[in-house]
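Intended use. Records like the one below are meant for learning the mapping from a protein sequence to its folded structure. Do not use them to infer anything beyond what is encoded.
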Amino acid sequence: MGIIPRDENRVPAFDPSYGFFTSKTMTFAGGTTNDPGDFNGTGNPATLFTVTGAVRLKILAVCTVNLAGATATVEVGTSAVTTGLIPLTVATDIDANEIWFDATPTTTIEPVASLVDNIVTANIIQTVRTADITSGVIKYYAMWYPLSADGSVVAA
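Structure written out for the chain above:
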């Protein structure tokens, strides 16, 4: 008989699709040196989630304050594949209340089946490309399930 995975509070996870849930809010001020929105600063890329072991993961973001920054673009992935989880997207296309999980964040309702299921073994990063994201707020949601005994996702 297998071991039932548990979170850090020892709560069991029975559903492999959405066993655990972790979130992280990113506030952008790209005009500030080394802010995560400063595309050529030391805060970019920014680690969103620390991953240990192997996990099954779905990720999405909800914008709470419109993103601004002339020609800025943003993507989410790992250091090996920076667009592996959410593809490169024009930052100003990400508006308040929109769900962002693909290159065209245009909706406030989305079928869960639209989210891509991934197996992840590395930290999840957000990378700002092209220009600074000067303002805005995004909240990232990671829905995950451990595949390995040490599988875990924690907000960075």
